[in-house]
Amino acid sequence: MSELQRLLSDPRFRSADKVKRGAGAAPEPDLGNVLRAVASLQARTESPTPPAAPRDWDALINRVQTAARQARVIEAQAREREARIEQVLDQVREEIHASNERARMAEMQAREVQLRAEAQVAAAEERAKAAEARARTAEDRARQAEEWLDRVQQAILSEFSDLTEQAAA
To answer: Which residues form a coiled coil (predicted)?
Structure first.
């Protein structure tokens, strides 16, 4: 950028009518002169390149073709791997779906077994309560029967006590 500024401030590149504007005003450069100066500077800085030999171009074309073939092979391999990965992913998705379905079925069966077990436990508890009630009733009846047997024995002994005393005498 400093080269361009130097060229713009160079009095050789200012137009004549703009120089006459005034001593205090900043001179404006003539664009045509600036472009010619820049072009000449570029022409001096650029060194001409020797033309390449035809066989160098052939080698370059061969390298480009080889690189393109390798790129196609790599791309085909990538597509093939991608297809295999998609296939594996599809299988994994199917297996996950199947395992989720099996888990759901197992949960349903477990819930059914749990409900049956709870029903059986409740029925067993009811049977146990009924058996306990029957046992209490049987114990009450047995106690009452023993009391009656005891009364009968006492009645027999008291009524036939004179007979037993006479027989003993």
So the answer is: 75-155
Which pTM does this prediction carry?
A: 0.40
Q: Identify whether residues 83 and 153 lie together within a single domain.
A: yes
Domain count, the chain: 2
Residue 110 inside a domain? The answer is yes
- For residue range 128-143, what is the model confidence (pLDDT) as tens digits? 999 999 999 999 999 9
Q: Do 27 and 80 sit in the same domain of this protein? A: no
The two three-digit tokens of residue 3, written as one number: 């080269």
What is the domain extent for residue 40? 1-47
Say how far residue 132 (Cα) sits from the centre of its chain. Answer: 57
DSSP sequence for 13-52? GB-HHHHTT-SSSPP-B-HHHHHHHHHHHHHHHPPPPPPP
Furthest C-alpha separation in the chain: 182
